[in-house]
Amino acid sequence: MIQTVKKDRISVAENQIEDRRQEIDYDTREFTIEIIINKYLEKDDDDLSEIYVPEYQREFVWDIDRQSRLIESIILGLPIPLIFVAEIKETGKLEIVDGSQRVRTLAAFLTNQLRLTNLRTLDSLNGFCFKHFAPSRQRKFKNTPLRMIVLSDKADEGVRADMFDRINTSSVDLKPMETRKGIYRGEFIDFVFECAKNNIFVELCPIFKYFQNRSEEAELVLRFFALAETYPGFCLTDNQNIVDLERISMKRFLDEYVMCKNNNFSSEERKQKLHDLEEMLHFVSNTFPSGFKKHHHSSATSRTYFEAISVSSHLVLQQKPNLVVQDLWNSSDKDNQTNAFYIPIVRYDTHKPKNIRKRIDYVKEELLRHSL
Fold first, then answer.
1. Is 275 left (phi over 0), alpha (psi -120 to 50) or beta?
2. What is the pLDDT of residue 190?
3. If DSSP states are collapsed to H, E and C, what string results for 190-250?
4. Using an 8 Å Cβ cutoff, are 76 and 85 in contact?
5. pLDDT > 70 in the chain, percent
6. Do residues 97 and 51 make contact, with C-beta atoms less than 8 angstroms apart?
7. Coil/strand/helix, residue 156
8. pLDDT in tens, 89-146
9. Within 10 Å of residue 233's Cβ, how many Cβ atoms?
């Protein structure tokens, strides 16, 4: 038997629907690839682009083949998924909600950082960079229009986060750390998950809504251990096999690291790694008022910032155990504190070893330069 719903409940529901619909007010705009990428690449005095990637999406994860296929699709005239952006009320800038991998791929291609590989339909283009195309083809590519859904500035951070969550959970795949916990069982992976519950770590490292309950904390702890131990070469040697981050993805590198540690994780190493983590966290707590966040008001932690700050802090403490650092911040107003040095976030190939080293070395040098 179908139950009836009282009229007052129907009225409440209708009012809620109308309120929420107003929060998600949007319009559709069309820009050429050239305009979109120029707005993405050109920065202002605050190191922000007119179209920018928020902190929680900083990691670039597409491999070369997938990037190449996107470029091939555009050249063939195939339809490209809409890019979702949100207009920020305070600045008028556009925050990318969905489409950051596509925008970064296009930027890499137009700046000749991407060389096309493994194309099948247009196999004659394999090995091409943008500069290798005829001028007429370059202009056609840059003048290709892309459609954008632009959320109005009525959409606050909560609405933007909810949209990101809905887009990215339409088909929920396990995150790498969730998979590792089930597949690579052992003392080391258990230890990593234990460390992720550290109270200081949790306080310093807020997790974006979409990644909560998806083992993101354990992912960050694992990255700290793996990168700190293998710096500067980021290579592993296990049973005469060399695992080099230069040749494989970060996911595969971390998988191999977990397997290696599970096989050889002694009580002595456990004690040392716990000491290293706690020492690093105390140093970050005393040195960085905003923890691992770029801004004090940020509600999420960028993996690239976390890696740079955590590993560099560990390295300087190895060099100077009693290091004290001051004057890293350019504002006495805590609510508006911004890191005085912007870690050089490479927008493309964020996990190429040379780019990881660049970020770590930069922060390390700044910490030593400001030390007492």
1. alpha
2. 93
3. HHHHHHCCCHHHHHHCCCCHHHCCCCHHHHHHHHHHHHHHHCCCCEEEECCEEEECCCCCH
4. no
5. 79
6. no
7. coil
8. 888 899 888 888 899 999 999 999 999 999 999 999 999 999 999 999 999 999 999 9
9. 11
Enumerate residues 6+ apart whose C-beta is below 8 A from 120. Answer: none
Q: Is 286 exposed, middle or buried (0-12, 13-18, 19+ CB in 10 A)?
A: exposed
Domain boundaries, the chain: 7-157, 174-369
d(CA 364, CA 1): 68
Q: Are the CB atoms for 84 and 101 separated by under 8 Å?
A: no
Which own/partner contact pairs does 227-234 have at CB distance under 8 Å and 24+ positions apart? 227/307, 227/311, 227/356, 227/360, 228/276, 228/310, 228/311, 228/314, 228/315, 230/257, 231/311, 231/315, 231/357, 231/360, 232/357, 233/353, 234/353, 234/356
pLDDT digits (tens, 9 = 90+) for 192-239: 999 999 999 999 998 876 566 678 899 999 999 999 999 999 998 766
Q: How long is the chain?
A: 372
Q: Side chain identity at 44, as an amino acid letter?
A: D
CA distance 249 to 62: 10
Cα(341)–Cα(327) distance, rounded to whole angstroms? Answer: 11
Q: N- to C-terminal Cα distance for the chain?
A: 76
Enter the DSSP assignment of 335: G
Query: Taking a C-beta distance cutoff of 8 angstroms, is the pair 141, 134 a contact?
Result: no
Model-level pTM? 0.61
| pLDDT per position as a tens digit, 339-352 | 445 555 556 667 78
Alpha helices in 24-92 (DSSP H): 33-41, 64-76
- Which of 142, 286, 262 has the alpha carbon at shortest distance from 204? 286
d(CA 62, CA 60): 6
